[in-house]
Amino acid sequence: MSPEDDKEVLIRVRGLRTQFGTHVVHDGLDLDVYRGEVLGVVGGSGTGKSVLLRAITGLERPAAGRIEAFGTEVLTASPEERDRLDERWGVMFQDGALFSSLTVRENVEVPLRRIAELTPELRRALADLKISLVGLPYRAGDAAPSELSGGMRKRAGLARALALDPEIVFLDEPTAGLDPIGASAFDELINTLSDALGLTVFLVTHDLDTLYATCDRIAVLAEKRVLVTGTLPEMLEVDHPWVQEYFTGPRARLARDAIRTDTNTEAD
Ligand SMILES: Nc1ncnc2c1ncn2[C@@H]1O[C@H](COP(=O)(O)OP(=O)(O)OP(=O)(O)O)[C@@H](O)[C@H]1O
């Protein structure tokens, strides 16, 4: 029995094919996402990490294949099933994708409007709770997205993704464009949410520091499919040029050493 056998699969992708015109992005892609894990999805530029995220969450129509989320077939879901899926996952896009004409609190309230029983006061209180959960100051709720720093906007996007207490969040490049301090603070936030809430995280990233700091497992996209999945130590053993270069190149060594130094310092 492999260690994966006793894990609950939240998302199961089989034989996925996506294409734009004649440009095939994925072909025969298989992937499982397990409950409670932080899964890092990596791959060279243009290998289809964001398209995969959009396909799983029903925002991109694949040419073929099956995508199952919480036991529901995403591609053939009825509008009611689709609504239920939207309540069980949250998506944070690269730039936060906030509505610029709404305050941060109003942005976080958008998904909460799906729940008809919520009074405006309760909706506001729940939004404020999510705003503080992601480490934003209380006053940020009244701000327009444009008044926030990039890092704060990303946190606001995460607060909105968490509005309905999802079981899984999809994060597209959450640390892209952040300075190193902001990026490591965001890594810590991912760890806190995953530990405290048992949240499953599907994390598209190029950021090696984030991989080392947060991920339980990695999925590498190459050759139009998930080439390999495994833990970081397992990645170091994979005999593939891109995987070798990515995980054992100079930047990877720096990231690995930085984490080791952190761990040793904590242990002192
Ligand atoms: N709406 C679209 N129309 C046409 N082509 C698209 C569309 N969306 C994505 N693509 C193409 O699909 C391929 C995969 O794109 P995707 O954004 O998923 O890559 P990625 O792995 O996330 O890249 P990066 O790491 O650079 O963000 C790219 O070649 C991209 O140009």
Automatic annotation (TrEMBL):
<protein>
    <submittedName>
        <fullName>ABC transporter ATP-binding protein</fullName>
    </submittedName>
</protein>
<dbReference type="InterPro" id="IPR003439">
    <property type="entry name" value="ABC_transporter-like_ATP-bd"/>
</dbReference>
<feature type="domain" description="ABC transporter">
    <location>
        <begin position="11"/>
        <end position="248"/>
    </location>
</feature>
<dbReference type="InterPro" id="IPR003593">
    <property type="entry name" value="AAA+_ATPase"/>
</dbReference>
<dbReference type="InterPro" id="IPR017871">
    <property type="entry name" value="ABC_transporter-like_CS"/>
</dbReference>
<dbReference type="InterPro" id="IPR027417">
    <property type="entry name" value="P-loop_NTPase"/>
</dbReference>
<keyword id="KW-0813">Transport</keyword>
<keyword id="KW-0067">ATP-binding</keyword>
<dbReference type="GO" id="GO:0005524">
    <property type="term" value="F:ATP binding"/>
</dbReference>
<dbReference type="Pfam" id="PF00005">
    <property type="entry name" value="ABC_tran"/>
</dbReference>
<keyword id="KW-0547">Nucleotide-binding</keyword>
